[in-house]
Design a protein that fits this description.
Protein name: Cytochrome P450
CATH class: Mainly Alpha
GO molecular function, one term: oxidoreductase activity, acting on paired donors, with incorporation or reduction of molecular oxygen
Distance between the termini: 42 Å
Family: Belongs to the cytochrome P450 family.
Number of domains: 1
Cofactor: heme
Pfam family, one: p450
CATH topology: Cytochrome p450
Helix content: 40-55%
Radius of gyration: 24 Å
Bound molecules: protoporphyrin IX containing FE
Strand content: 5-15%
Shape: globular
Largest sheet: 4 strands, mixed
Amino acid sequence: MTTVSTADELRLYAGLLWNNAFGPKYDLHKIPGPPGYWLWGHMPHLMRPDYHVQALEWADKYGPVTRFSLGGQHIVLVSDPRLAATVLGRGAGALPRKSIGYSFFDLATNHLGLRSFFTTTDEDHWALIRKGTAAARYFVVALKHAQELAGQVRLAAAAAHRGRGVEMQEQVEMMLLDVFLEGLFEMDLRRINSEEVGHAMNLVLEEANERIKNPFRKFVNPLLRPGWTRSVSRAQRLLGSLYGRIFDTTRARGVPPEDETLLWACLARIKDPKTGTPLTREQLLPEIGAFILAGFDTSSHTIAWCLFNVAAHPDVQARIKAELAAAGLLHAGQPNCVTPRRGGGRGGGALQLTYEDLPRLHYLNAVVDETMRQGFCTMYPVAATGSVRETTAPTRVGPYTLPPGVVVWPMIYALHNAAHNWERPGEFLPERWLDGRDTAYASARDAEVPAASASAPSAAASDQDGSEAAGGGGGGGAGRGPRRFMPFSEGLKGCMGQALGLMEVRTVLVSLLSRFWFDLAPAMGRAESVRRNQQIALTLKIKGGLQLLCTPHSGAGRGKGGGSAASAAAGAGAAGAAGAGAGPRRGAAGAPAGAAAGGLN
Ligand code: HEM
């Protein structure tokens, strides 16, 4: 079990400063980049809360490979799809994770300085956990919770004062936390205060994020802000006790049967290669925390940003409703949120959503992809800003040879938004995804990525095979250029929960959008200012929350043009949108093992 002491970290920073001043530079100085300060480098530039936007500005200004530094650390920012795929992929040119770039994550997974498989430098340990959990069946309790959430939204919307909205970001966060605790670990939610846990996570992640920009904060904060430091420690202990409770509960279940493939059972079966015995409490705690964190924050903020985009673009919302209506999934005029069993449908109430419906809702999925492209919801720094890799020997990255110890940052936000990769990158255009899966790839003329590092794009990948496998490696398939869309990263260390995450996002969106019309509450101000008001936690979230006016479709429902949501949908070109998205309805038969029996909604 790897731990990192304060002395280790101080030694590391001293080494970096030394290296910056006196170490070999190879081609570093040839890489274009913004001017910085000698000692601090570009730290002052990155102190702004939306520093991912600053990095994108550099990518746009200085090109697909640009350079800056944070204190003593040289950082090479890559927004060229081909190079990013190579660096993250499995073939020659692939680089290991930069461990310190992830160490902030440990703050939220444990308070003992223990590393999880996500943050360790020990590749054997990473492989042990990754392989041990690869078969995990991410059981879909998302549906149950999504439906409950719709009920809660209805109650909150009814209770809200006129013109005041319902705070959706936090509601979705809590819901996703429940999904994780119940679905992956089979915990009894009545015994867990999700709200308290959610707040503790947010607090710890806020601190973790600040430490990425300013690693010295760890040392000065206890002196300058002792109250805050105590709150962070309290939150860490609270999370630690939750992970401990999960360990105790699942261990008390004894040896899981071989055919049990929920996450807790997979973790329980992993044996320490040295002792041959199941992993100890100390070994498993950070892993439990890593899974919860990796999955809950990313998925919940994806949902929140999708809802924001939908509320900010009534035409987009109406088109989604049209698609849902054509699929028989719109709950127009229903008095409550109880979904009828099969047998409802176009003549009566809405049909029950099945797993098979999800990939067929093309327009909804385009909205999700476009939201993820904009980068609001990918993991940080693991992705809002990218997966962080490191050179361990002199390494060629594109035309440049880099010395060891340089951070290579295939920054997903820049890849997804740089002017050299996309047309009209700043615009929210779900339509760009309707042309087909090739949207995820750069043009074929750039296709020099080794085939060995290829993997499919996010949504398209899981639609295709329904698998819950992690993202694969690098570039495009036959005839395609390299991927320029990789919200789940790439390669061996790409996201393990891609299919689960997408399923949760889509399911919750269908569940809510089939029942409510959403508008931004007046308190949110203009959409543009909300977009500028991002706050980075583990992922980008909406600072101050997402206040939405939620109008149920029943009777009082309204949409574009002032009619009911259903009629708004129809008026928004139902035939085109829905025709592309939803084919004739089928029964639940054939739903993959991950899907709840009988339907998803
Ligand atoms: C929309 C939702 C999600 C997004 C955008 C997302 C994004 C990512 C990204 C970009 C990485 C790569 C980190 C890197 O390159 O260093 C990653 C890793 C990971 N994700 Fe996700 N993720 C999502 C949902 C989930 C869910 C639901 C789970 C639940 C199990 C999960 C579990 C993980 C794990 C365990 C890793 C680390 C894999 C490893 O180190 O081998 N993620 N995720």
